[in-house]
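task queued by scheduler; priority normal; single chain, no ligands, no partner chains; default sampling; output format set to structure tokens
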Amino acid sequence: MDLKRLRQILDRASSKRILVVGDLMLDEFVWGKVGRISPEAPVPVVEVTGESFFPGGAANVARNLREFVERVSVIGLIGKDRSGQQLRELLTERKIDIADTLEEEKFRTIVKTRIIARNQQVVRVDRERITKPSGGQISKVVAAVKKKLANVDAIIFEDYGKGFVAGELVAQIAREARAAKKIVTADPNPHNLIDWSGMTAVKPNRAEAFLAAGMQSRDSEIAPKKDVDLVRAGKTLLQKWGTQYLLVTLGEHGMMFFEKGKHPHHIPTKARDVFDVSGAGDTAIAMFTLALTCDARPLEAAQIANHASAVVVGKLGTATVTHDELISSLEHDFG
């Protein structure tokens, strides 16, 4: 794929309409510096210099899409608490549609707090309670999706294993979306073994792929092209889920792309600097799905996702990739 082709694909992006369904969370970053060790315990004392808040989880997928797409909707569950209000405000500021997001009085909005000192994460604190949606909530979400379906080009399931992405919710929405011939993709979680049958594409990481395939995952120093276990896991999942495409993210080794009836294709990483991997998977599923809606060939979509992920891991915090950054990443490839 050359720059001309990338521009052709991205030029189609702004008019696309994408719906994200999944676990919503608020990402908090506490920035500071370490000058001493605590006298109370052998831990660093972080002197706080600032705080930042970003949409996290499925909300970050929507945020990544919003860099390219005018109309993005996200559906999930938040609490009627300060963090929920803050997340709602962040999404509204970015003109992301949250009209169908559920608010629950007793639910505590999920917050991930990362404490950063000298560009290094010192510790992460998670405030969460895994809560599955009730039958009534599932019916409400499915009804909202059906109402939107005629006006969306793709649906993304973003599963962080926090409970909202329940099997019945996925099954009902996927059934409606397939009947309407919409693109449906999923970013799975290894602790929530959902049946992703019939998806257009699924994007697990290596460990998730092995777990879903019923295989033991082990660290491999083998080059991805020669990793027979990885290839077997990928082919197993293509058959198990009946999905058209499988994109397995491999961290510093890039991605492995699987397509029915074709040989797997390894895409080496394009990352030049890695500062923070927070949200890189969100960027990958967002850009892969968006590219498919823009009539990119499947392998081109995977390559775009790979370049986009390479950009965000070079930033601190839960980050997004912009149009110009994506173009620049590909230009560097040819440079």
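post-processing summary
- The two ends are 14 Å apart (CA to CA).
- The CA atoms of residues 198 and 243 lie 5 Å apart.
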